[in-house]
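In this section we walk through a basic example: taking a raw amino acid sequence and producing a predicted 3D structure, encoded as discrete structure tokens. The instruction is simple. Fold the sequence below.
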Amino acid sequence: MTASSLVLVPVFLPLVVGALSAVLSRRAAATLTVVAAAVTLVTAVLLGIAVLESGPVPLEVAGWAPPVGILLAADGLSVVMIGLSAVAVLAAALVAAADDHFAGGHAFWPLVGAAAAAVNGVFVARDVFTAFVLLELLTIASVALVALGGARSAAAALRYLFVAVTGSLFFLLAVALTYGHTGTVDLARAAERADDTVIVGAIIALTVVGMAAKTALFPLHSWLPVAHPAAPTAVSALLSALVIKASIVILWRVIEYLGPHTDIAAPLATVVGIAGAAAVLWGGILALRRDRLKSIIAYSTVAQVGYMVLLIPLVFAASDPQVAWVGGILITVAHGVAKAAMFLAAGALASAAGTSQLDGLEGTISRMPWTVAAIGLAGVSLAGLPPTLGFVGKWMLVQASLDAGAWWWLALLLGGGLLTFAYTARMVKATFNPPGDFSRARELTRPARTVTIVPLALAAVSVVLGVIPWLLIEVLSAAPMGGGA
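The resulting token sequence is shown next.
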């Protein structure tokens, strides 16, 4: 199998496994999903090696070149995000296989296959129409996954659907405008033909609004804090770690290719940065005020989305935009790993204690220390403290901020980190015994061992990647953002 052929594996393998899972037993479906995720992870590694050796790996589907055919390509961003996708699906699948309560039913398995195929397809797509189609498949699968939480989740799933469809309409207008102006939906060719700064600015603006709705960027975030608590634990982990990343990547791609062709891009980037700053502060403050584990973590995601878009104004302001790109991507990967760990650990803790209320978790650290440790370690990464991957990403954004002379972004990065540390400490503190009193170390409904091990392993991955970040940085630098594919 050639390197180009490998590009198809992360897209079609989960799709086939998802289709099979619909007619197989729960155990067989779980096994196939775990194997598919492991194979996808290996494929990401192989594609990463190919990218290091020869740069982006393109594939013309069915041998037809654009504009007639569809071009898929794996660059540094694609490889790293596919790796994140594989890790998140693998972790969620292992936990769901160990306890069906965390999955929400058998429908979880085919829906996860569809979602993984769609999100991986977005990561390698190079034209906006293909990205739009795959994003809609992801939306349908994600809404259905949220609805697996039972009757109480129907309203949350419906709200998610309404907001996502609204975002889709804005992005579809951007796709139509791209084709109408350039005669193609392929981003590289559209960038070559773009000659009207106002129209290109409108394409970027429509994409920003559409992807902000799907990503839950402030102030279009209201669906996310409702969807997470309503969804099963494994679904919450996937939503936060993986699903919102697809729309983030689309936003990055459009700005990567079309941003240099309009003077309107820089002011729009500043607006996006302001929305990101508001998200960091608003999400962090509301997370501090919540009293349920999943609600706290959900608002934490609102805050962390702000960091993912903060790279956009820095790309336009810094003398070396590649530092901002890489820093933002590393923060996104760190968020995916840490947030999956945090949601899975929180779900295990709430299941064992019989409640997700902070005041009902007192004494649980004595019985489930590793689960609490996973929450704490994941929070350290989200706060951007060493030696985690979150620290490496934030440090690169700090460098980009200083390079651009934008000290206010530096203040935001530090303030957001303090808020993250504060609400993480609050969650961990809620599990402590009262000083000198161990009578609260009551017997709990212990989850399966896998449910305890997986979140801790994910949190540990954040530390390992923080110690050896050059593995990701080299891949991202070999086929950088801003250079196309």
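Looking at the output, two observations stand out. The longest helix spans residues 321-353. The chain has a mean pLDDT of 87. In the next section we compare this with other chains.
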